[in-house]
Every structure is written in C-alpha cells, then in structure tokens.
Amino acid sequence: MSTLEQRYFGRDVSSSSLHHVYSFLTCRLAHSIPFSARERLMRYRSSCAQEFSAAAPRDQSTMDVFASHLFRFWDSVLGASPGPAWLGHPAVAEFTQITLHAMEGVLCRLEGYVILPTHVHVLYSQSLELRSGPTPTHVADALKHPVAHFASRLLELRGPFWQDGDYHRILRSRRELDSVRRYIRRDPVRAGLVGTPDEWLWSWERGELGRTD
User: Fold this and answer.
1) Can you tell me the distance from the alpha carbon of 77 to that of 101, in angstroms, rounded to the nearest whole number?
2) For residues 24 and 122, is the Cβ–Cβ distance under 8 A?
3) If we measure between CA atoms, which residue out of 141, 130, 151 comes closest to residue 103?
4) Does 167 lie in the same domain as 115?
C-alpha cells in the first residue's frame, strides 16, 4: 500500500470528494497504567463486548462506538494513574509543545492537542493530495523520539520513556471531529488538574478548524 488513501482506508478513494484525513493520536508514558488497573480494564472490555454484540451487528459504526467507550474508560485510568508523570515537568511539557508545532506543515496540520502528566492527545489532519504522505507511525515517532531524548537527559531517566502501542483513530465525520475536540479540551478538567479548560497551560487549539469532507 503506497498511497495515503490506501494506508487509511485499504482502498483507492482518489476519485471521491475527500481531501483531508483527520486523526486522533494518543501517546502515553511507559508504566502509566499500573498493573493493578489492567484486570479492571479487561473486565470493562469484556462487559462492553458482550453489550455491543447483543445490541447490534458488528458493522463499522458499532465498532467505532465500542472503541470510543473503551478509550474513554482507558483514558480515565490514565488520568488517575499513580505512575510516572514526567510530562508534567514544565520544561518537558514546553519541549513537547515545541516538538508538536515543528510538525506543522511538514508531517501534518495540527488541529489541537493537550499535554497531560502521563499522556498526550493530538488531533491533526493530512491532505490526501500528498498521496504518499506520512503514516500515523511517522507522526507519532516525530513526537516521541525527540521528547524521550530531551526528557531522559533532563530528568536522568533510565529505561523506556514511552509505552509501545499508541492509540490512533481515523475520524470519519464532522460529529466525530467535534466530539474529539471537546474531549481534548476538557481532559485536564476530567483529570482534576484544573477547574476550567482555559486554566491548563499545556494545550492548544486551532482557531479555524479546516472543513471535513
């Protein structure tokens, strides 16, 4: 698969009216979900699977809702994690911001992000006119590698900085896109870090979000 369309959709959509792909990426620190929480996550996944399989056939829409429910529960565990919180160091958070904005116009167009002590949420878009444009792995690596190097030197860390296996989701509608924007904006409030989204220093949102097709 050599084109951006095929990487995302598994088929050639060059003849369609689609011009941009909007993506939601989450990268989390190593050991940010404690072992004690894993059984709880597995039980929740099992209960969700039973609920959704009984309620509707496994079409794409149903699976998207299922994935959304799992992600929100998983993210709530991250927000309350007693594990490493290296991204909460002001110098590391600032460097993460700089690294994200360095991607602008090179790998993607940033639409918004929030940097929390244990993880980073990024909303970005890519033009399908790039054809052989960067994959989600390229975007994630461009963020993770420099931040890990900087933070490990600054904080004198040993071992892995990021957890393997990022969360990545393609947003296929304006409704999904708006939902993710609100989710990112309010995540510091849900985590109990601030009272209102505007109080959180380590977030950014594009004023004029590009139109989804």
Assistant:
1) 28
2) yes
3) 141
4) yes
Pair 116, 190 in one domain = yes
Continuous segment of H or E residues that includes residue 156: none
- pLDDT > 50? residue 25: yes
CA torsion, ordered 208, 195, 173, 209, to nearest 10 deg = 10
Q: Taking the CA atoms of 126, 137, 140 and 147 in sequence, report the sign of the dihedral they define.
A: negative
- Same domain? 170 vs 135: yes
Residue 52: give the domain boundaries.
33-82
pLDDT of residue 55: 56
Q: What is the overall mean pLDDT for the chain?
A: 78
Q: Which two tokens stand for residue 32?
A: 């940010």
- Least Cα distance to 83 among 195, 156, 162, 188 occurs for 162
- Note the pLDDT tens digit of each residue in 1-11: 334 444 444 43
Residues 128 and 52 in one domain: no
Closest CA to 162 of 147, 184, 174, 176: 147
CB 185 within 8 A of CB 206: no
Which is nearest to 212 in space by CA: 111, 107, 101, 105? 111
- DSSP 8-state symbol, 209: P
- The residue whose two tokens read 């088929």 is 11
106 and 188 within one domain: yes
Q: Whole-model pTM?
A: 0.74
Is residue 113 a part of any domain in this protein? yes
